[in-house]
TrEMBL record:
It comes from Mixta tenebrionis. The keyword Lipoprotein applies. Belongs to the nlpA lipoprotein family. This is Lipoprotein. It is a lipid-anchor. Residues 1-22 form the signal peptide.
Length: 267
């Protein structure tokens, strides 16, 4: 009787293990380009069962991950993740650094940065990490000067750090997803690559000024929990996302607007 019970328990354990192994990997991602890239992964690795959950406005993918509603997410860069860990009181695990979406300056009113008028209004993302990133882009393009800071992305800057503003630029902080819609109301806007692509903009072609991809600390990451960091499905997805096939897809499909991190590492 005991032997039969042990066999039954062993069989049940095997079924549970097989069920867990076969469970789809639930991953939250921005629709463009992240979910599109994941759909391509499904084409080249059909044995990896991905359940792609596209993020909509107001949904925090890190809260979804912390609560166990998803197994991983793919949408954010490291400075934003660190800020989220502090805000949520959680620790997450980075399992792959996948691609860079250069931040761009766009306008419906002028054709070049030199044409920006005195007192120009420029809309920037209102979250602390991308606001800092946008201010550094304005400085890089010679439009403002900031207090001397560590430029790694680890030290955040705010409009209060502007020490020289020759054009008298007016900074307007707006929710990141709303920035493309603001283009009709401001002289220019600094827009994250994913929102630019969703709005039909081609960063490599349409931006008046584009963030450099070289030594860029804002690579988009595959993130999970410490408990799932070595899960075979996560490890396999990380390998797929950083594969030559996916890098080639990014280059061909996004024409320089989405840049594989591997390209920068090999420069």
């Amino acid at each position: 009787m005991i032997k039969q019970t042990l066999f039954a328990l062993a069989g049940l354990s095997l079924l549970v293990a097989q069920s867990l192994k076969a469970a789809p990997l639930r991953i939250a991602a921005d629709p463009v380009p992240h979910a599109e890239i994941l759909e391509y992964v499904k084409q080249i690795d059909p044995q990896l069962d991905l359940d792609i959950i596209e993020l909509s406005g107001g949904v925090n993918a890190n809260e979804l991950l912390a609560s166990g509603d998803v197994d991983a997410n793919y949408f954010q860069h490291l400075p934003y993740l660190k800020d989220q860990e502090k805000a949520l009181g959680k620790t997450f695990s980075v399992v792959a650094d996948v691609h860079i979406e250069p931040l761009g300056i766009y306008s419906h009113r002028v054709k070049s940065l030199a044409d920006l008028p005195q007192g120009a209004s420029i809309a920037l993302p209102n979250n602390s990490t991308n606001l800092s990133r946008a201010l550094r882009l304005l400085e890089d393009k010679g439009l403002i000067r900031l207090q001397a800071q560590n430029n790694s992305g680890a030290t955040l800057v705010t409009p209060q750090d502007i020490v020289d503003n020759p054009k008298g630029i007016k900074i307007i902080e707006i929710e990141s997803p709303q920035l493309p819609r603001a283009l009709d109301d401001v002289d220019a806007a600094i827009i994250n690559g994913n929102y630019a692509l969703e709005a039909g903009l081609t960063p490599a072609k349409d931006a008046l000024g584009l963030e450099s991809a070289a030594h860029n600390p804002y690579g988009n990451l595959l993130v999970t929990t410490p408990q799932l960091a070595k899960d075979a499905r996560i490890v396999r997805l990380a390998k797929d996302l950083t594969s030559p096939q996916v890098a080639a897809f990014m280059r061909q499909h996004y024409n320089g607007s989405v840049i594989p991190v591997a390209d920068e590492q090999h420069d």
